[in-house]
Amino acid sequence: MKIMHTFLELGKAYGLTPKKSREKDFHCRKCGGVMRHIPQTNVFLCENKNEEGGVCGHRVFTAKAF
Ligand SMILES: [Zn+2]
Description:
Helix content: 10-25%
Order of helices and strands: HEEEE
Structural class: alpha+beta
Bound molecules: zinc ion
Protein backbone atom coordinates (compact mmCIF):
# COMPACT_ATOMS: atom_id res chain seq x y z
CA MET A 1 0.00 0.00 0.00
CA LYS A 2 1.26 3.43 -0.96
CA ILE A 3 1.70 5.89 1.83
CA MET A 4 0.35 9.34 1.16
CA HIS A 5 2.41 12.24 2.39
CA THR A 6 0.31 15.14 1.28
CA PHE A 7 -3.29 15.89 0.56
CA LEU A 8 -2.24 16.62 -3.00
CA GLU A 9 -1.02 13.04 -3.42
CA LEU A 10 -4.15 11.81 -1.77
CA GLY A 11 -6.23 13.86 -4.16
CA LYS A 12 -4.34 12.55 -7.18
CA ALA A 13 -4.85 9.00 -5.98
CA TYR A 14 -8.57 9.59 -5.78
CA GLY A 15 -8.66 11.41 -9.10
CA LEU A 16 -9.33 14.82 -7.69
CA THR A 17 -7.80 17.95 -9.12
CA PRO A 18 -5.97 20.18 -6.67
CA LYS A 19 -8.46 22.58 -5.24
CA LYS A 20 -7.94 26.12 -6.32
CA SER A 21 -10.92 27.49 -4.56
CA ARG A 22 -13.88 26.07 -2.73
CA GLU A 23 -15.80 29.23 -3.33
CA LYS A 24 -18.79 29.02 -5.54
CA ASP A 25 -19.58 31.82 -7.89
CA PHE A 26 -22.14 34.10 -6.39
CA HIS A 27 -24.41 35.75 -8.85
CA CYS A 28 -25.76 39.22 -8.39
CA ARG A 29 -29.51 39.43 -8.03
CA LYS A 30 -29.52 42.90 -9.53
CA CYS A 31 -27.48 42.45 -12.71
CA GLY A 32 -26.83 38.70 -12.87
CA GLY A 33 -23.05 39.09 -12.99
CA VAL A 34 -20.57 37.14 -10.90
CA MET A 35 -19.91 38.84 -7.61
CA ARG A 36 -16.50 39.26 -6.03
CA HIS A 37 -15.89 37.78 -2.62
CA ILE A 38 -14.01 40.00 -0.23
CA PRO A 39 -11.46 37.68 1.43
CA GLN A 40 -11.92 36.80 5.10
CA THR A 41 -15.38 38.26 5.16
CA ASN A 42 -18.94 37.24 4.51
CA VAL A 43 -19.34 39.98 1.95
CA PHE A 44 -19.81 39.63 -1.77
CA LEU A 45 -19.54 42.78 -3.83
CA CYS A 46 -20.79 43.24 -7.34
CA GLU A 47 -18.35 45.24 -9.46
CA ASN A 48 -20.01 44.58 -12.76
CA LYS A 49 -21.10 47.35 -15.03
CA ASN A 50 -24.79 48.08 -14.99
CA GLU A 51 -26.93 49.25 -17.87
CA GLU A 52 -26.21 52.91 -17.15
CA GLY A 53 -22.46 52.29 -17.48
CA GLY A 54 -21.79 52.58 -13.76
CA VAL A 55 -20.77 49.95 -11.27
CA CYS A 56 -23.58 47.84 -9.95
CA GLY A 57 -22.30 47.94 -6.37
CA HIS A 58 -24.79 45.40 -5.06
CA ARG A 59 -23.65 43.76 -1.83
CA VAL A 60 -24.65 40.47 -0.31
CA PHE A 61 -23.88 39.29 3.19
CA THR A 62 -23.71 35.54 3.61
CA ALA A 63 -24.54 33.71 6.81
CA LYS A 64 -20.93 33.05 7.72
CA ALA A 65 -17.47 34.35 6.92
CA PHE A 66 -15.19 32.18 4.85
ZN1 LIG B 1 -24.71 43.42 -9.87
